[in-house]
């Protein structure tokens, strides 16, 4: 956007362009609302300037113009192919054609890349400007794939890959190229030098030997041969007759006239070999004719060949078994030993195999030239099948053309025409497969269809179908078989019929059932829904009326003629005795009774079941006893009483209707009258608010418990032999959990549980821990509460209080994690923390840290370490306090040492002061030392002595360091001279005055000299003595003058 909008909002932009060769701009758009625009329809390769002008309500502003012209170009298309031309054991020769499109900009080069098999990485090889490249330094027997990309000013093209190739030496049978030697015969005159060079082909390089009359040619100075990388050269100097197979002769002519004059002889002719030889024909062609010759339609192709043989062979060109003749389009030239075939304005039909045949008395030779003309494709392979024909549609299918014109088939074009018309109409223009469903045909019309293949060179020739009539291939079905009625009652009948003899060529989709009352004339349709079965129940009949039936079949072509009518059937009930009751079974037994049950009979005989009868008999007897009331039972269960204990019985049941008693149903086995032991069972109702139903024999014992053994003092339990009820009043969150019911009798036990969820605020979070403490923050972690109050935990509330206070303050009221970092704490202060969970019912119970936490951290390392002293078995160190104690008092220091060559640090001293003496060292050993500070939060990082220390006694000659050079002392005062000194071992210091020893101190010596004379001058000197010897004398600088002690005047009034 412009920096200055003119005081009004920019409404739009105007974009203009001009070619670099012109001066005038043309407008692209005047209403561009955005700050970007794509400009189409530029001339490829042309250079343009562009400018943009902003517009507001006051008009159009100044333009912004591109500084340099911009070329309308893009990356080129990739080369059409990447060909492998040659392979050796470490090189591959590549070649490729130019891209079809250079993107509007000149191709500046080609990038070659290679990829090893099994790798996904492409390796850059080189960039070349020509259309070929030799890739060197490849690994033998490794498989490579190569790719080439064309490059122009707009960038690189897409890559074109080669076929995978294994880098190894190629194998080729040895072969001589004798085309340069006429009929394999060398003719020379005696004394001439003969040099024959014969190209040799073959990989690996062949071994070449020369023979004469089946004997190896012996090399001499006159006759020798030389082998090069591509040829062998035979040299014969001053050839003789013995060098030839047959004798060679020369001829000359001498003219004579009538006067008898004789001219000088003519020049001799060339040497002529005298022999009669027949040599079979041979055909030699250029290497390019060994592969298929590919060209585009309209181009000219030439087929050339050289022929050898004696006598000169006869040559003939043929194609597809027919000899070719010289025409205006096809020109054939034949010489003695060569021939050329020239075809002009080539079309696809000119492609194929051209055979050149050369023959003479010695035999014949053939060579086939394969020519492929890139053109529009030929017609698809027929026939064009038309199937699944109906009055509205059909399906076409065909095969791809035998001749694709040298390019892949892109799609097919399908057309149709009515036989009564000449014009073709399009059905589909881009059919990707060789099958198509054609719709929207007109019923009864006759159509011809045609299909044409399309490749990148155009639309090919058409394949036409035979005329096809758009009619359905099926007719209405035959009538069904005569219907019959299989079941009758007072208001319905079941009608059955047979399938038609023929379905008319289309599946039966429906049957139409019609009935006619004997008292009426009209046929009435019975079914409203589709019927595909061969039976149908006709309902809604009038009791006592007689009906006849007929059936019609329906398929895709229509409805058939009706079937023959059935006989008349009367609508009335047919009553029979009922069938046996279903599923007779024993429900229960006691020592004096058996309870049985059954189902209604499947067949009631056409009359309502009026009751049931039960009979019993002993197992070994056939005398049955009725145990039910005379009127029978209405229910489908019965308890047989007054039975003997442990006695087995046979039991059977009958059903009764208006026709009488039906067939019996026998209860399986022989049930025994005995007490049945039933394991306990529990039945929980769906709402879990009613009583719990219990079953079992004997009556089970009931026991309620909780999962973790919690007390049930609040619960009220009411139990009987068949139910139990547990009631808990005034529940809270602690009443949530699993309640387990266990019932047990002598037959076993059974357990069930109920999970109770009390909706309340949550319990306290679990496992509150201090994870990390620093001087200003504490990190807390915890786990969700065991009891969530029956609602999902929404968040946690984190609180803190100082140890000196009683009130908590909120740190975070909406924490969604189970951890929180409490920061901004006062360094060195003690705090308590607590966490509370919150759900939709409120904030729950807190969990609190059991002990206070001090906001502190480990101290910083100690300061600079100083080596105070070293002996043969000890080291004295001192150090500075840490810059920061971490908010907590330094409790002490840990001194560690490490022997040379060891990785382990050993603690050698723990002290509270800032210095330590480490003893027990080994004389001559080298040691490293480090010191760490410790407070209640831990141990700091160590500070190491900068240099290692060797445990040994130091030997330093004694020396003095005098602080002053002149001393003045008042008469009568004491003179005290402090003289610092050094020396190892510790020197023995002696003061002498007039060879009298004086008093000595620890590190400094002082001397008190008494009885000095006033106004006298004195000089002193000092020497120190230790095991190393006597040190040099040190003169006390200057002269000491004894003066009278002066006192301030004292006035006594």
TrEMBL record:
Gene3D superfamilies, sorted: Immunoglobulins
Xref: InterPro entries: FN3_dom, FN3_sf, Ig-like_dom, Ig-like_dom_sf, Ig-like_fold, Ig_I-set, Ig_sub, Ig_sub2
Entry's Gene Ontology cellular component terms: M band
Domain Ig-like per the UniProt entry, residue ranges: 281-360
UniProt cross-references to Pfam families, sorted A to Z: fn3 (PF00041), I-set (PF07679)
GO molecular function, one term: structural constituent of muscle
SMART domains (alphabetical): FN3, IG, IGc2
The Fibronectin type-III domain, residue ranges: 1-76, 78-170, 379-473, 479-574, 580-676, 764-859, 861-954
Highest taxon of the lineage: Eukaryota
Keywords on record: Immunoglobulin domain, Repeat
Biological processes annotated in GO: cardiac muscle tissue development; sarcomere organization
SUPFAM superfamilies in the cross-refs: Fibronectin type III (SSF49265), Immunoglobulin (SSF48726)
Protein name as annotated: Titin
Organism per entry: Salvator merianae
Lineage, opening ranks: Eukaryota, Metazoa, Chordata, Craniata, Vertebrata
